[in-house]
Amino acid sequence: MTVLALENVTKAYPGGFTALDDVSLTVAAGDLIGIVGRSGSGKSTLLNIMGTLDAPTSGTVRVDGVEAGALPDRRLATLRGSRIGFVFQHFHLLDALSAADNVAIALLYTGVARRDRRPLAVAALERVGLGHRVGHRPQQLSGGEKQRVAIARALVHSPALVLADEPTGALDTATGEAVLDLLVELNRTERATIAVITHDQGIADRLPRRITLRDGRIVP
Amino acid sequence: MSPGDVLRLGLLGIRGRRARAALSALGIAIGVATMVVVTGIPAAGQRALADRLAALGTNLLRVQPVSAGDQPTLLPAESVAMVRRIGPVEQVSAVANTHRVVRRSDLIDPEDGSGITVLAARPGLLPAAGAAMSSGSFLTAVTARFPVAILGYEAAARLGYDRLPPPGAPAARVSIGNRWFSVGGIMAPAPLAPELDQAVLVGWDTARVLLGFDGHPTVLYVRAREDTLDDVRAILPATVFPQLPGLVQVSRPSDALAAKREGARTFGALLFALAGVSLLVGAVGVANTMVLSVLERRREIGLRRALGARRSHIRAQFLAESVLLSALGGGAGAAAGIVVTAGYTAWQQWPLVIPLGPVAGGVSGALAAGVLAGVYPAVRAARLTPTEALAAV
Ligand SMILES: Nc1ncnc2c1ncn2[C@@H]1O[C@H](COP(=O)(O)OP(=O)(O)OP(=O)(O)O)[C@@H](O)[C@H]1O
Ligand SMILES: [Mg+2]
C-alpha cells in the first residue's frame, strides 16, 4: 500500500535555484528508506516536501492518496498532524515541558481528548525505552534521550510515515547508532514506515532501501 | 483543541518568561489600578457626602441680607418672629454679628482677632443649622443669660482649645470685648453652616447686655417642610424685610454641597481618561512583549505546524498569551486599586464603596487591550511557513 507518492516534483527557491528537479518516488507501508547525497544535494528540501512542510514549485504530492497541494491550510495541517511524524536533527523539544508533555503536543492538534493524551504519551516513551524519564525536562536529558523523546513524539499518533532529517547528526557515533537501531527496530516490530536522511554511509548501508540524490535529482 | 487547551498554551509562554511577563503586565496593572482608584475614591466621597446630607437634612434655608452700597443692610429685629408665623416653617433660628473681638487672653493685641467672629445666637440654633457639639453643651435658656461662650470647630482650634479642660483643671475662658466668658462647649464641624465653624457664639441677651449688640440678625436658619420648600423660599424675603425684600438673599446650603460634588465628578472624569491613556500605554508594552515572544519562538511555531497546528491554532495561542498577560495585569491592578481605595476611605472614615463598574470596566479594558496588543503578533506568527519557522535560529 502506497502511503506517499511524489510525481515530477520540482522545487525552485526564490532566486531561481532549483533544489529538486523532476523527482518522482513512492513510499509503501512498512518501508525503511535511507536518503543520502552530498551536502546541498536537496535531501532536506525533498523531506520537507514529502512532509508537506513546503510546497513544490510543480508536481504533485499525495499523502494516503490525498493530493496535498489541493488542500487549504486547515485541512493540510490536520493531514500532516495525523499522518506524518517528524524527527529533527536538533530535537526541537520545548524546554518548559516534561518529556511526556513534549510527546503529547503531537496529539494536541489532531483532536485527541486531553485525558487520553498523557497515557498515550507515556506509552510512546516506554516504546522508545524512556519509561523512567517521563517527568524529566529536556535540560535533564542526554542528547540520545532527547532524540528518543522526539522519536516517541513522532510515533505517538501512529502516523503513516515518519520522516527523520539527520536524526543522528547532533549525536556521537555510539548514541547515533543506538538511535538508528531504535528506528530499525520500530520498523521491524511495529511496521512503522520511516524515511531517514543521513550523511553516514555506514548507516545508509544498513537500511533496506536507499534513495541517492545528486544536484536535486534521484540517482537511478 | 478545547478552550482549556488554548488557555494552557497561552500560559506556557508566560510561565517560561515570568519576569518579562510581570513587567509588561505591570503597565496594564497600573492603568487599571488608577481607573479603580480615581473612580472609587470619589464614589466613596460622594457616598459619604450623600449619607451626611441625608443626616443633616436638605430642608434648610439660609436667609441673609445683601449690602446695598457701603451701608450694611440691617434686618429688622422682629424678622425671626415673623418667619416663625409662616405655616410650614418647622424651626427658625438666627445669629448676629456682634463685631466684637475674641482672644484667648486679654494680654493679646486687641486688633488680633484671628479671623474669628463673635456671633449672638438665638435658641434652637443647633438643630436648625444642622450643627452638633463635639464636647460640652450648647447654650441653654439659663447659660444664654450668663457670660458663656460656645466655640465653633475651627475657632476652638485657633484659640487653642481642642477640647474642654478636664473637671478640676482651671476652666477654659476667652476674652470677648474685654470681658471674660467661660467656654461652655465646642462644636463639631457644621457642613451646612460653615460660618459657624469660625465663630464664637454667645447668648442673644448676653450679647445685648454685655457687648452692646443692637439686636439685628445677620443670618436666619429656617427649616420648613420639604414639599413646601419652594413656596417658603419665595415668601421669605418679603416676610423678613417687608420694606426691602430685594435686599434679602435666600440660599439652600445642601445645594452648595451637592454642587461641590458635581465639580468633583468632572475632575474624576478627567482622571479616568488619563487612566485610560495609561492602560493604552500598557497595551503597547504587552504588544511589544508579544512581538518579541513571537520572534524568539519561531522554532516552536515551526514545530507546532509540523505537528499539525493550523494557522488558526498558532493565532489562538499567541492571542491567548496576550490576553492572559493583560488579564493578569488587569486582575492585579483591580486588586491593588481596591486595596488603595479601601485604605484611603478607611483613613477618611468614609463608607467603602467597591467601584464595581470601574473594576469591571478596567478588567474588560485590560482584556480588550490584550486582544488589541495580541492581534498583530499573532497574525505574524501564523503567517510564518513551517519551513521558515523551523529554519529560524
Ligand atoms: N530557503 C532556501 N532558499 C534558497 N535556497 C535554499 C533554501 N534552502 C535550501 N536552499 C538551497 O537548496 C539546496 C539544497 O538544500 P538542502 O537543504 O535540501 O540540502 P541538503 O541535501 O539537505 O544539504 P545538507 O546535507 O547540508 O543538509 C542548497 O544548495 C541550498 O543552498
Ligand atoms: Mg539537510
UniProtKB/TrEMBL annotation, chain A:
Keywords for the protein's UniProt record, in alphabetical order: ATP-binding, Nucleotide-binding, Transport
PROSITE patterns referenced in this protein's UniProt entry, alphabetically: ABC_TRANSPORTER_1, ABC_TRANSPORTER_2
GO molecular function terms listed in the Swiss-Prot or TrEMBL record: ATP binding; ATP hydrolysis activity; transmembrane transporter activity
TM helices/strands, residue ranges: none
One term under GO cellular component: membrane protein complex
InterPro entries in UniProt: AAA+_ATPase (IPR003593), ABC_transporter-like_ATP-bd (IPR003439), ABC_transporter-like_CS (IPR017871), ABC_transpr_LolD-like (IPR015854), MacB-like_ATP-bd (IPR017911), P-loop_NTPase (IPR027417)
UniProt KW Transmembrane keyword: no
Domain ABC transporter, first and last residues per copy: 4-219
UniProt cross-references to SUPFAM superfamilies, sorted A to Z: P-loop containing nucleoside triphosphate hydrolases
SMART domains: AAA
UniProt entry tagged with the keyword Zinc-finger: no
Protein name from the UniProt record: Peptide ABC transporter ATP-binding protein
Originating species: Paractinoplanes ferrugineus
UniProtKB/TrEMBL annotation, chain B:
Transmembrane segments: 21-44, 267-295, 316-340, 352-376
Entry keyword set: Cell membrane, Membrane, Transmembrane, Transmembrane helix
Name under which the protein is recorded: ABC transporter permease
Membrane topology classification: Multi-pass membrane protein
Keyword Transmembrane helix on entry: yes
InterPro entries xrefs: ABC3_permease_C, MacB_PCD, Macrolide_Exporter_MacB
GO cellular component term, pick one: plasma membrane
Domain of life (superkingdom): Bacteria
Family to which this protein belongs: Belongs to the ABC-4 integral membrane protein family.
Chain ranges of the MacB-like periplasmic core domain: 22-234
ABC3 transporter permease C-terminal domain span: 273-386
Subcellular location(s) of the protein: Cell membrane
Lineage of source species: Bacteria, Bacillati, Actinomycetota, Actinomycetes, Micromonosporales
